[in-house]
Design a protein that fits this description.
This protein is mostly helical. It contains 2 helices and 2 strands; from the N terminus they run H-H-E-E. The chain has helices at about 5-15, 25-45, and strands spanning about 85, 90. It has a two-stranded antiparallel sheet with strand order 1-2. A hairpin with a 2-residue loop joins strand 1 (about 85) and strand 2.
Length: about 100
């Protein structure tokens, strides 16, 4: 597959790349080499095999049931928070803070 200079200019414009006229021939050649490599990959025959998603041999362990639940905090926040209401930490408003 070949790529023209005009196509490379269009690709560069779409990608918002600033490509000068001196670089265009090299860039065109590099894109042609990439496309030639990809076409080689397309020519490789592959067997239609099932892909193994589990890294260990043997049966796949069963998945646990998804359940939505609220996590229990490891420590009661009221023990270290000065003011804790309705699941929120409360603090002074910015106007109440002193400047140093």
């Amino acid at each position: 597959m070949s790529v023209t200079r005009r196509e490379v200019e269009r690709i560069a414009a779409l990608a918002a790349l600033a490509v000068d006229d001196d670089t265009l021939p090299t860039l065109t050649q590099q894109i042609q080499q990439i496309l030639a490599y990809v076409s080689q990959l397309d020519a490789v025959q592959s067997d239609a095999r099932e892909v193994e998603l589990h890294p260990m041999p043997g049966p796949v362990p069963p998945l646990r049931e998804d359940r939505v639940r609220r996590p229990d905090p490891p420590v009661d926040p009221t023990t270290f928070a000065p003011v804790f209401e309705n699941g929120l930490f409360l603090g002074p408003s910015p106007g109440q803070l002193e400047r140093e």
